[in-house]
Amino acid sequence: MALGDAAHEREAEPHPARVAAARPLEAREALEHPLPLGLGDPGAVVVHREHDLVPLAREAHLDPRAGVPRRVVQQVARDAREVAGVPAHAARAGMRACVFVPAGIERGKILSSAIHGPTVVEVDGSYDEVNRLCAQIGDEHRWAFLNVNMRPYYSEGGKTLAFEVAEQLGWRAPANVVVPIASGNLLVKIHRGFQEFAALGLIPEASTRVHGAQPEGCAPVATAFREGTDAIRPVRPQTIAHSLAIGAPADGRYAIAAVRATGGAIDAAAEDEIVEGIRLLAEAEGIFTETAGGVTIAVLRKLAAAGALDQRGPTVAYITGMGLKTSEAVASALPAAIRIRPSLRAFEEAVLAHAS
């Protein structure tokens, strides 16, 4: 989501060709034989695109002694894109998929995964505990987990959120970005993406202030930033923003370093502020975001009120998931429907009178 003078004419050259030089060599080679799922053109102001998982899926092999098909991809899933994206791409590639989630994750996210036929494993524990379990499984059984022992490849996709924003802004970096923080990796990669585009000469030197957003119920990075340290103290998450509920963020100190290097800030949003952020974005812009997006909007409001935003250019707030997967988070905050009899008079008395 871009704020400010973000309307620029887009060039007609196909998007992949413009950023091919920025892809890792292995990814460029793998994309010569893609298995596309029709992700669409990236021209929307809100960036939802996930990196291509197919090249990674082809490399995810099981130990042949395990007695299951060799072509398998696994994922510890935090948000709807990951929960649905991995089994969807695996299904397209003719592979078996296993998705590990903490028990209690939003049912909509599990349904969006289960429809593709993966093995869904619910673990009684937090995301941090699921990650630790999957790391142990990977070591013991030689399984490849996309965002655990294959994390270097997985995390490269985060840079595309910077690449596409630079394109949409007319080949320049924004003055500010606000990025939700779970592990901290996405923020780090967005920052690096702008740096790499500048190094390639595709955009002028990037001077973007990078800001981070966390829920108060899981804010170890925001706490460390506020205290002036890069030492992250793990916490036990208690928040409706489940996709950001990483109590021991692996890249937290790198996120803090990126924010400080650019003159940005990291703040946290209370639960009611998250819900209000979701409602504000929906009512003002017609965009229904999940709870992580509510965190981003709530922190954006705080940064604007504190004068922390660079006013010399547009601000981009990353809305990283859609609201249908976490609708229960806002259901109780919405007004009840007006119920009427099927008559014009009932409509005029209840609806028109109410509206006036």
Helix-strand string: EHHHEHEHEHHHEHEHHEHHEHH
Strand content: 5-15%
Low-confidence stretches: 1-14, 30-34, 38-72
Q: Largest sheet, order of strands side by side?
A: 1-8-5-6-7
Mean pLDDT: 80
Oligomer: single chain
SS-derived structural category: alpha/beta
> CATH topology of the largest domain, which one?
Rossmann fold
| Broad shape | globular
* Helix percentage range: 40-55%
Secondary structure tally, helices: 15
The main β sheet shows up as: 5 strands, mixed
Number of domains: 2
In whole angstroms, the N-to-C terminal distance is: 33 Å
Query: Architecture of the largest domain in CATH?
Result: 3-Layer(aba) Sandwich
Task: Give the tally of β-strands.
Answer: 8
- CATH hierarchy, class of the largest domain: Alpha Beta
Radius of gyration: 21 Å
Detailed description of the structure:
This protein is 41% helix and 11% strand. By secondary structure, it is α/β, with parallel strands linked by helices. The chain has a five-stranded mixed sheet, with helices on both faces. Strands 2-3-4 form a three-stranded parallel sheet, with helices on both faces. It is globular. The model is unreliable at 1-14, 30-34 and 38-72 (pLDDT under 50).
